[in-house]
Amino acid sequence: IEEQILSATDLTSTSYDRRATRTLLSRDLINVKEFTKRMSAANESFNDTEL
To answer: Which superkingdom (predicted)?
Structure first.
């Protein structure tokens, strides 16, 4: 019986988590793009000063 309860809560939590994760993921993807842009810009300026 415990297993059934656990699997039931798993199902509800995963569907909720999936929905939450999807929004978080899209937000994170945007952050990653921004981060990569900044990193490449920082690297370019770093390379310029190094030379």
So the answer is: Eukaryota
Which helix (H) or strand (E) element contains residue 11? helix 2-50
Q: Identity (one letter) of the amino acid at 8?
A: A
45's tokens = 């300026």
Amino acid of residue 15: S
- The residue type at 26: S
**Is pLDDT of 51 > 70?**
no
CA distance 31 to 4: 39
What's at 16, amino acid-wise? Y
- What phi, psi does 6 have (nearest 5°)? -60, -45
Q: Is the model's pTM score more than 0.90?
A: no
